[in-house]
Design goal:
This protein is mostly helical and 295 residues long. It has one domain: Farnesyl Diphosphate Synthase (Orthogonal Bundle). 65% of the residues lie in helices and 0% in strands. Helix 2 crosses helix 3, helix 2 crosses helix 6 and helix 12 packs across helix 13. It is globular, with a radius of gyration of 19 Å. It starts with a helix and ends with a helix.
């Protein structure tokens, strides 16, 4: 009779254990993307789960680097090395997300290059260089959430890459705005302050004053302008028509729209207590948009 450890090892080697690991991690720490991949065709879910779990690990590296940037950079470099030389991994000790990722048939040199681009964008967060302009903020969102959604949709309908990139970029921008309370170096760090220097200067604000709540109206106006940039991305998505087989990654746009609506209801206060979506309302929203076939 095969023992538990041997079964686990066999499962990891043939990819089933790696996939289960990815799904469990997403279910726990990236519930949004976990729910969207449930609307993908069954055969496409392993690819999406691997991509989203990789993105989650990148985000964890940034968080780990909040207090020790070098630690975050080391973690990102480990992933960069793993993507470049998967054949050098020990099957026995393989990282399950990497196993799931490189085991996909569409793990092509182009896909590797796009994943390295996501790693490079995440590393910029650890350098803590402020965003100079709103265009820089949007470019970062496009290089992270936008690139991820664009990669995901290529498995389903490559003709919808631009629409997926717009959806992922809007979702990333909404997430960056909701993360403002955690965009200071330290424990729980979630990346650089997403309010660019030119907007802050126009309102007479210094970056450190964002967390002091001395001028909430000025902060809210800066947040509103970044939110407007996200909404413009959603206009691009809406103009692309029915989702078709590309629905799952495009649902990032539905979530972005809902989060931006919550932020607007809070008068663009990023420190408002309830900017999230109800645990039951979120899957219902996705089901409704899926029925309409319009993200």
């Amino acid at each position: 009779m095969i023992g538990e450890k041997e079964r686990a090892s066999n499962g990891m080697a043939d990819g089933t254990g790696a996939l289960a690991y990815c799904l469990a991690e997403l279910r726990r720490d990236d519930r949004d993307r976990y729910l969207t991949l449930l609307f993908a065709p069954r055969q496409a879910r392993p690819v999406l789960a691997a991509l989203y779990a990789f993105n989650l690990e990148c985000a964890r590296a940034v968080t780990a680097g909040g207090e020790q940037p070098l630690l975050g950079q080391m973690r990102l470099q480990w992933w960069r090395d793993g993507l470049a030389e998967p054949e050098n991994r020990s099957e026995k000790n393989a990282q399950p997300v990497l196993t799931a990722l490189v085991g996909q048939k569409n793990y092509t040199p182009d896909a590797q290059a796009q994943l390295r681009g996501i790693l490079a964008a995440r590393e910029e967060d650890l350098l803590a260089t402020p965003f100079a302009t709103l265009a820089d903020v949007v470019a970062h969102a496009e290089a992270t959430g936008g690139a991820l959604a664009a990669l995901a949709v290529q498995t389903l309908d490559a003709d919808r890459t631009d629409a997926a990139r717009a959806a992922g970029t809007a979702y990333a921008l909404a997430g960056m705005l909701r993360a403002i309370p955690y965009q200071q170096q330290g424990r729980g760090y979630q990346g650089r302050l997403c309010l660019p220097q030119d907007l802050l200067a126009a309102h007479g604000l210094a970056a450190d004053e964002i967390w002091s709540s001395k001028d909430t109206a000025a902060v809210a106006d800066c947040v509103a302008q970044v939110a407007a940039a996200a909404s413009r991305k959603l206009e691009t998505l809406a103009a692309s028509g029915p989702a078709g087989p590309a629905l799952s990654p495009l649902l990032h746009g539905s979530l972005a729209r809902a989060y931006l609506r919550r932020l607007a209801m809070a008068h663009f206060d990023p420190f408002a207590p309830d900017l999230g979506l109800h645990p039951l309302g979120r899957p219902l929203l996705l089901c409704w948009r899926a029925l309409l076939r319009r993200p």
